[in-house]
Amino acid sequence: MKLPRTQFLAAAFAMACLSTAMPSSAASADGIRVYDKVCRYCHEAGVGPVIKGRQLPAEYIKRVVRFGNRAMPAFRPTEIDEAALAEVARLIASSTANAPLGQ
Ligand code: HEC
Q1: What is the 3-state secondary structure (H, E, C) of the chain?
Q2: If one looks up domain 24-93 in CATH, what number appears?
Q3: 41 Cβ closer than 6 Å to some ligand 1 atom
């Protein structure tokens, strides 16, 4: 199908808008940074249980991080902000056990 030039431009513009509405790479970089700097320290060192690749629900992960649970420390919004927590929870929830987070 051959689109007239104006329709082609409109479609290209719409696609550009959609892609900027997607989560930015900066956001997932934040989530990965939180995991690497905070969570990995315990959760890949045998201090805490493995949390990657278990399909733990993101809501559950966020709650555990905010409120803590026995030996799992609680983190305040000043330590891990809402956006970064949502991102790291989403990445962990959809992670596979042996791949780096976000892949
Ligand atoms: C100081 C070590 C430490 C750090 C840092 C830490 N955790 Fe934990 N975490 C633990 C321990 C220990 C447990 C097990 C708690 C228990 O059940 O007694 C745990 C449990 C959890 C659980 C529950 C796992 C399950 O099997 O139900 C989740 C989810 C979790 N942590 C997520 C995180 C995330 C996300 C981060 C980073 C923001 C993080 N933790 C940082 C030590 C840590």
Answers
A1: CCCCHHHHHHHHHHHHHHHHHCCCHHHHHHHHHHHHHHHHHHHCCCCCCCCCCCCCCHHHHHHHHHHCECCECCCCCCCCCHHHHHHHHHHHHCCCCCCCCCC
A2: 1.10.760.10
A3: yes
